[in-house]
Design a protein that fits this description.
Layout lengths: L1 E4 L5 H10 L4 E4 L5 H6 L2 E4 L6 H6 L5 E4 L9 H7 L2 E4 L5 H16 L2 H10 L15 E5 L3 H12 L3 E6 L10 E4 L3 H4 L5 E4 L13 H6 L5 E4 L8 H9 L5 E4 L19 E3 L10 H17 L16
Parallel strand pairs: 1-2, 1-3, 3-4, 4-5, 6-7, 6-9, 7-8, 9-10, 10-11, 11-12
């Protein structure tokens, strides 16, 4: 069996694969080589380097393992037509992303940017407002693995958590869970709105200017899912008109965020360059999912962890 990595993992992780799977022929490249792609039966990728032409070249491929949660940049139709199985690393981001979300939230509530600015300017200034996270209500759009971990952390601060998902089925660490059609009803109740939704046909531009108008003026909006949840111009308008208190963004419609974007100039937005999921343990956790799946695959089993519906996008 030939397994082709379209990226080059760190040496210790490669060594663990070679040691644990001596019967597998592993190939590691920093970019795709067409000749190697044509020989591969399994591809391990971050997903952004595959297109329809490369899927045609990969005639032998039956399984693509994506070392990322998002698959929206992959050639879904071409993959589906071939019947190629796709699985990903959904869930490994929950620890670093939840910590990032909590860090940003506490930073705003406890005025850390103000404190850091004063330190740089050697200024003793106590004239700022400080708020508590305790006793607030958080509306979490997409209470899956990441959202539930965020909920667990928030509940430790005695935050009331409300989750919104497609099914309305109860989610871990949510005080309430509802279907997405309750969005407009629940937005006015939230002190914090956190989106961890993927990019799908259903979630694209789900939030509009009118939704921000429904939020409290003291609300903090946090987007850590995908940038096409809301049109940039709608978000900018809501921020300029102070419909909400602050926005924390880790994802954007266009990435990298253009230098001429108005978002850079607003004082009520925090811009994070899509790094909330990064961690020194990222690939280590990815391999903890890939290796058991590879063992299953070699036994002829196809019920892999995080097996995805490529056309649905999750």
């Amino acid at each position: 069996m030939r397994v082709y990595f379209t990226f080059d993992p760190r040496p210790d992780l490669k060594e663990s694969l070679l040691r644990d799977f001596p019967e597998v022929d592993f190939v590691f490249h920093k970019k795709i080589d067409a000749e190697e792609l044509a020989k591969a039966e399994v591809i391990v990728t971050y997903g952004e380097d595959l297109d329809e032409e490369k899927i045609k070249i990969a005639e032998k491929v039956e399984w693509i393992f994506v070392a990322s949660a998002g698959i929206e940049k992959m050639p879904a139709q071409a993959i589906a037509e071939r019947g190629i199985i796709v699985s990903n690393v959904r869930g490994i981001h929950k620890k670093p992303m939840a910590e990032s979300i909590l860090a940003h939230l506490l930073s705003i509530k406890r005025a850390l940017p103000f404190i850091y600015k004063n330190q740089q300017e050697k200024t003793w200034n106590q004239k700022t407002k400080l708020y508590e996270l305790n006793g607030s209500t958080a509306l979490i759009l997409g209470p899956g693995a990441i959202g539930s971990e965020v909920g667990r952390m928030l509940q430790a601060f005695e935050v009331y958590t409300i989750g919104l998902n497609r099914s309305g089925e109860s989610a871990p660490y949510m005080n309430e869970t509802h279907t997405m059609d309750k969005l407009e009803e629940l937005l006015p109740k939230a002190d914090v709105v956190i989106s961890i939704l993927p990019s799908t046909k259903e979630t694209r531009y789900l939030l509009t200017y009118e939704h921000f108008a429904l939020m409290k003026e003291s609300c903090i909006f946090m987007n850590f899912g995908r940038g096409d949840l809301v049109k940039t111009e709608d978000l900018i308008r809501a921020l300029e008109e102070r419909k909400i208190f602050h926005a924390v963004l880790d994802v954007y419609e266009t990435e990298p965020l253009p230098a001429d974007s108005k978002l850079w100039d607003l004082d009520n937005v925090t811009i994070s360059p899509h790094i909330s999921s990064r961690s020194s343990r990222y690939l280590e956790r990815s391999f903890e999912i890939f290796k058991p799946s590879l063992r299953k695959w070699m036994k002829g089993e196809r019920d892999l962890e995080n097996k995805m519906d490529i056309l649905r996008g999750y």
